[in-house]
Amino acid sequence: MRIALRIAYSSLLLIATVLIRISAAEAADACIDCHIGLREERLNRPAVKIKDDYHLARGLGCQGCHGGDQTAIDNKAQSHSPAKGFLGKPKRHAIPESCGKCHSDPNYMRTFNPSIRTDQVKEYYSSTHGKRFREGDQKVAICISCHDVHAIRAVKDQMAWTYPTNVAETCSRCHGNADYMKTYKIPTDQFERYKQSIHYEMLTKRADLASPTCSSCHGSHGATPPGVDSVANVCSHCHAATADLFAKSPHKPAFAELGMPACVTCHSNHDVTKPSDAMLAGGADTPCVMCHEADSEPLKKAAELRTMIEGLSKQIDEASTILTRAEHAGMEVGPPRFELITAKQSLIKVRADTHSLNVQQIKVATDAGLIVAQKSLESGQGLLAEVQFRRKGLAASLLVIGAVLVGLFFKIREVDRRRGPD
Amino acid sequence: MTGARFADWIEERIDLGPLKHLIQKKAIPVHRHTVWYYFGGMTLFLFGIQVATGILLTLYYRPSVEEAYESVQFIMTEVQFGWLVRSVHSWSANLMVLTMMIHMFSVYLTQSYRKPRELTWVTGMAMFGIVLFFGFSGYLLPWNVLAYFATKVGTEIAGQFPLIGHALLRLLRGGDEVTGATVSRFYGIHIAILPACITAILGLHLFLVQKQGMSIPPSVERNRAGQSVPTMPFAPNFLLRDLFGWFLALGLLAALAALYPWELGQKADPFAPAPAGIRPEWYFVFMFQCLKYIPAKIGPFDGEVLGILGFTLGGILLVLVPFLDKRSAVGEPSPLFRSIGFGIIAFIVIFTVLGYFAPVPQ
Question: Taking the alpha carbons of A130, A133, A138, A139 in that order, is the dihedral positive or negative?
C-alpha cells in the first residue's frame, strides 16, 4: 500500500513538473501569454492559431507584423507602445507590402533559405488580383487570403491552404461563392467542375501531386486566366508529347483559323474528364461534330481509328482478365504481366497519336501492341491449363495418400489386436 | 528375401542388437494426454521435408539482389515442379512452426519439463528460437516487397535493443541498410549456420527423449494412485500412428501447395514507399502488434525498447521454467505456472487476431 502511494505521489509530481515546464515555455512571449487569456474571440484566436505558424517556429513572433514589444510580459502599455513600433491590426491595403518587407528582401530571406524566391509581391501586382487591388478593390485575394493569417504554413505542409491538394478549395472560398463574386460577372462553378475532372481525381484520390490544380494553369501569385493562344502552352507543360503531335496535325491551323483554343475545345478546361475512345466516334455527343458533318470523310477516318484502338484495348483487357484468373488460382503471372505492359504502352501511344490524325502510323503501333497482347493471352491460357493439371495431380496424390491412410488404419487395428489388452 | 540378406550383411558388420533392443523395449504411456506425444514427431517430419525441399531449392536459388527474385521466379515458372517444391517448403515451414508451438505448449501444460527433463525443455526451446530465426531469415530470400519491408522492420526492432541494438542491427543486415549483403548473409545463416546448430541440438534433444522416455503428466500419475500407467510398444503401434499423422500432414501439404501456391509478389524496391498494412509472418504478429500498442514513451523510457526488453525477459523466463517451478519438480500441481501458460497462449492468440483484424489507424 505504501509503495503504491509512493508511486502515485511520484507520478503526480512528474505530471506537475511537465505542466509547469509547458506554461513557463509559453510565458516567454508576452503577446501570446496575454492574448490567449482574453475573452473576445477576435483577440484570443490569433494566439491560439499562431502555434501552428511557420514563422513562429523560426523565432519570428507577432511583432514581426504587428510591431510592439513581445518581451514586455504583463505590461500592455509597453508591449503596445507606439514607440516600439506597435501597429495594431495592419490595414488590408498594406498587407502585400507588409509581407514584402521580408519576402521581397533577398538578403534577409537568404538567411532562412538560400534558394527561396523573393519575387512574389512583384508577381502579385502582375496578376488580375494585384491589378484590381491597386485599383482599390479590397475584395480581391491578397497574401492572407491564400496563406491564412496567424497559422501560416509552408507549402510543403499538408495542412497548408497552399498544399497542392488544398489549393482548389482555397481558391473556391472566393471563386465558388456566387454572392461574393457577383460584381465580377465570372462563373463560380469552376471548383464543382474541377472536382469532376481526372486531374482532381489524380491529385486527391491517387495522391499524384504532379497533377494540376488551379495554380498549375493560372499561376499562383501571378494568377490570371490563360488566353486562347496560350492554352496549348499551359497543357503542354505536362502533356508535351500530345501537344507536339497536335502542333503537327492539320487541326492546328484549322483551330487557329476558327479562333478556337487548342485542347479545351475537345477536352474542356476545369472538368477535363479521362478521354475515352468514344470521343473518336464522330457521334452527336462528340466534339468532332462541332466542325465536321455526319458521314464526312474526317469522321469516317475517326471511326476507323476508333475500331483499331478498341480492338487493341479489348485484346489487352482479355489478356489481363485471364492473367488475373490465373493469378487468383495461385499462378505466378509476373513475366506475362510484364510483357503486357508493352502492349499497354502501345495503347497509350496510339491514343496519344490520334492527335496527329496519322492513320498509317497509328496502325503500325496498334499491330505491334496486338502481337504482344495475343502472346500474353496465350500465356494466360497456358497458366489456366497448368492449374487444371495441378488439380488433377493433387487429386491423384490424395487418392494415393488416402489409400496409404486406410492401409495404416487397418494395420494399426491389427497390431493393436495382436498385442491384446495391456 | 533380398532385404533379409541385406540385413544379415549389415548385421555381420555392425552389431544392431542394442538398437533393436532399444526399439523393442521402448514403450509409450497411454492416457488422456497421449495425443500430444504425436506433435514432436510431426514437427520432426516437417523438418525433414524442409531439409529435402530446401536442398532442392538451393540448386536454382541465387542469393543476390540482382538474381534472388528472378531465380525464385524461374523456380516457380520454368523448373519442372519447382512451384511445388517452393510451395511445400514455405507451407511446411509454417506448419512446422505451428506444430512446434503446439508441442511446446503441450509439454508446458502437462509439466513435462519437470525434473529430470529440464535439459530436454531447454534444448527444445533453443530449437524453437532457431526455427523462428529460420523463418525470419528465409522470408527475405525471395527479395520481394513484403519480405524486404518485413525484414527492414524486423531488424529495426532488433536494433532497438539497449546497448547492443545497433551492433546487432549491423550484424544482421551486414551494414546499415537491408541490401544484397543482407540477402547473402541471411542465405548463409539459413542454409548453413542454422541447420548446423539445429542438427546438433536436435540430436541431443532426441537422445534425451530416448534416454528418459516419455514423460507422464503428474495429474495422470496422481489419478492412477500409484498404479502403473498402461503403455503401448513404440514399434510398431506408436510408429504406425505417427506415420498416419505424417501422411495426413503430407496430404494437407499437397493440398495447400497445389491449391494455394506460395505467392511471389513484386520484386523489392528499396526506394519505393512501404506498402500499407505491412506485417511480419503470422508467428511474429503478436509481438509486432503488441509493440504497436505500447506508448512511444513510458516515463523517461522508450516504449518500444521496454517492449523488446519485456519479450526478451519473457523468453528467458520461459526457458528457465523447469528451474523456477519447484512444485512441478516434486510432482505437485502448479496452478501458478499453469495459469501463466494459459495466459501466454491467450496473449499470443488475442494479439495475433488483433494483428490481422484490428483497424489500422490512418
Answer: negative
Measured from the Cβ of residue A385, the count of other Cβ atoms closer than 10 Å reads 11
Phi/psi at A402 (nearest 5 deg)?
A: -60, -45
The answer to whether B264 faces chain A, any CB pair under 8 Å, is: yes
Distance CA B353, CA A11 (A): 34
Q: Could you tell me the three cell numbers for A31?
A: 503577446
Q: B325 with B215: CB under 8 angstroms?
A: no
Rounded CA gap, B94 and B132, in Å?
Answer: 10
Per-residue pLDDT for B299 more than 90?
no
Is pLDDT at A422 greater than 60 in this prediction? no
The number of helices, as runs of H, and strands, as runs of E, in chain A is 23, 0
Residue of B nearest to A398 (CA): B251
Nearest residue to A192 via CA among A175, A179, A180, A167: A175
Cα dihedral A347, A348, A350, A351 in deg (nearest 10): 110
With contact defined as beta carbons under 8 Å apart, do B208 and B123 qualify?
yes
What does the DSSP assignment read for A291-345? TSPTT-HHHHHHHHHHHHHHHHHHHHHHHHHHHHHHHHTT---HHHHHHHHHHHH
Complex confidence, ipTM: 0.87
Give me A399's grid cell. 487418392
Domains and CATH numbers, chain B: 32-216+233-278 (1.20.810.10)
Task: Say how many Å lie between the first and final Cα of chain A, rounded.
Answer: 58
Cβ atoms of B213 and B26 within 8 Å: the answer is yes
| A193-199 average pLDDT score | 95
Q: Using 50, 70 and 90 to split pLDDT, how confident is the model at B297?
A: confident
Q: Is B213 on the interface with A (CB under 8 A)?
A: no
Mutate which of B38, B244, B263 to test chain A, going by most A C-beta atoms within 10 A?
Answer: B244
Judge whether residue B188 has pLDDT over 80: yes
**Bond preceding residue B116 cis, omega within 30 of 0:** yes
pLDDT in tens, A367-414: 999 999 999 999 999 999 999 999 999 999 999 999 999 999 999 999
Could you give the CA distance from residue A150 to residue A36 in angstroms, rounded to a whole number? Answer: 13
- Start-end of H helices in chain B: 2-13, 17-25, 38-58, 68-77, 82-109, 118-140, 145-159, 165-173, 180-188, 194-212, 218-224, 239-259, 282-293, 303-319, 321-324, 326-329, 335-357
Residue B130, chain A, CB below 8 Å: the answer is: no
Assess whether pLDDT exceeds 60 at residue A205: yes
The yes-or-no verdict on residue B121 having pLDDT over 90 is yes
What's the whole-number mean pLDDT along residues B3-32?
88
Cα separation of A234 and A253, whole Å? 18
**pTM for the predicted model, two decimal places:** 0.69
**Which residues between 319 and 378 in chain A have a beta carbon less than 8 angstroms from any beta carbon of chain B?**
330-332, 334-335
- Say if B94 is an interface residue toward chain A (CB within 8 Å): no
CA distance A32 to chain B (A): 29
Average pLDDT estimate for B163-183: 94
**Ramachandran category for residue B359: left, alpha or beta (phi over 0 → left; psi -120 to 50 → alpha):** beta
pLDDT in tens, B241-294: 999 999 999 999 999 999 999 989 899 999 888 887 788 899 999 999 999 999
Query: Sorting pLDDT into bands at 50, 70 and 90, what band is A289?
Result: confident
Cis peptide before B236 (omega within 30 of 0): yes
- CB nearest to B255's CB, from A394, A415, A419: A394
The three-class DSSP label of residue A264 is helix
Q: How far apart are CA A360 and CA A368, in angstroms?
A: 13
Cell matching residue A371: 502481337
* Most distant CA atoms of chain A, gap in Å: 113
